[in-house]
What we know:
This protein is of the alpha+beta class. It has helices at about 10-15, 50-65, 65-70; strands at about 1-5, 30-35, 40-50, 70-75. β2 and β3 form a beta hairpin.
Amino acid sequence: xVRLKIIGTQWKIVEKLKYFQxxxxxxxxxxxxxxxxxxxxxxxxxxxxxxxxxxEIVSFFRTDNDLKEWIDATTTLxxxxxxxxxxx
Length: 88
């Protein structure tokens, strides 16, 4: 979940995420992103196999020059499913 610092940048973020790729050898994927209404401005869904991959994704949001300017706050919600395989 993302709260914007600069209103109107939600579609720039969605577009930027289309080209965000994992480091070679990592097994994760951003599967969905969309603006929302309410307390949060954007939802981003990703799948991953280990917490190291989640850390890579979250670190990107915190360190990317554009995203640092556009995003005010994030909340990470983790859903679990036993033996989930993302088959990348």
